[in-house]
Write a structure and sequence with these properties.
- By secondary structure, the chain is of the alpha+beta class.
- The protein has a single domain, classed as Jelly Rolls.
- The chain is built from 4 helices and 12 strands; from the N terminus they run H-E-H-E-H-E-E-E-E-E-E-E-E-E-E-H.
- The strands form 3 sheets. The protein has a 5-stranded antiparallel sheet with strand order 1-10-7-12-2, covered by helices on one side. Strands 3-6-11-8-9 form a 5-stranded antiparallel sheet.
Amino acid sequence: MMLRWFTIALALAFVGARADAQVQTSAGAGTAAGILGTVDTFRTLLGPLNANVAGSFGSGRREINWDGVPDSRSAPNSLPANFFNANSPRGVEFSTPGTGFAVSANSGLATPVEFGNIDPSYPNTFAPFSAQRLFAAIGSNIVDVNFFIAGSPTAAFTRGFGVVFSDVDLASTTSLELFDGANASLGTFFAPTGAFSFLGVSFGSSLVSRVRITNGNSALAAGVLDGGNQDLVVMDDFIYAETVIPEPGTYALLAAGLLFVAIMRRRRHDAVHGGGL
């Protein structure tokens, strides 16, 4: 009985924590100039922009606009998954079911801009929100963003994350799904359709350990064209709250609860089957 009521109390505590999270969404679509107000509102919500240095400022926000990525890490070369934690410390690392990541080339180089190196039609499909590089996964339309204390291997949390998308044509295909520290979904949110779309999701506290970004319904590839029921989408600016270590009280409660449950289960097992190794 004690175990039952402790488990219920623990569950209620975490339901309450999520209810207090005060999820807010910011979304807009249109021209680059047309969505700027929505983007700036989300920036203000998260706080002032922090420098791209190691460590945590505890509050404020970080941004990635891809434009400072060197040519050696841009198309036709791949971007390392940990570039924005190890090379330019901003507290994020990427993963994908695909084969890697690409940042589009700048104009004036031998490589075509806006992923024209993948298919020559893409510069007519995509455009940058902040000139002039774009970002995409290769071999998949999915990118997972994991959070760290910038410049370190220490896993961390954020309270908000937003993306500017280029060329969202179909509703309910491009989305952000956010996860907590137990890898439980905090919800899936869809970007509106438009030449440029912005979607940002924020909480009242730092709950988010991972974000899954789904870009349209197809991956970039030679001969894969945008149109009809096939929606190709790429990304520009990432805007997210400063990464932090979770509040000790909340996660200490979870750890204590899980330990208590494990102990009580072991005691019950021993009572039924006898102790010993």
